[in-house]
Design a protein that fits this description.
135 residues; 3 domains; 0% strand; elongated
């Protein structure tokens, strides 16, 4: 990890990185300009075929559909991200429940059996709800 950091600090690497960033930004600007001109040309074609208001409505609706699709994709990616902190928190809760169960079994085994039945029912209920939600 430090090796990568020191390679970035190194003068040659830093110069090449700066050059790459500048060229990438210039390429992005050229891409945006080209896309703008293509959209303007497509708008003119549609406006000549229909009228200007219909062309504006078509292009506006198209951009809204594209934006909604991108927002949906971003939301899906965000919801499927790995959550290591949540997994560790669940592990901590499970460890505390096991410690509580051990204490309960030592003091009064009858209460432990009752608690096991209740926890089993809750587990069955939540598992069934999650499998129904996936289908």
């Amino acid at each position: 990890m430090l090796r990568v950091f020191f390679n970035l600090i190194d003068g040659f690497s830093f110069r090449y990185l700066t050059q790459r960033i500048v060229l990438s930004l210039a390429g992005l600007l050229a891409l945006l300009l080209g896309a703008g001109f293509l959209l303007a040309a497509a708008f003119r074609v549609v406006a000549d075929a229909l009228n200007v208001i219909d062309a504006a409505l078509i292009f506006g609706a198209g951009f809204i559909v594209i934006a909604l699709g991108l927002f949906g994709a971003a939301s899906m990616v965000w919801n499927r991200r790995p959550r290591p902190m949540l997994a560790r928190a669940r592990y901590g809760v499970a460890a505390e429940v096991l410690r509580l169960a051990q204490t309960m079994i030592r003091k009064d085994p009858g209460k432990a059996v009752l608690a096991a039945l209740i926890l089993g029912a809750i587990t069955e209920y939540t598992t069934k709800r999650q499998s129904d939600a996936r289908d």
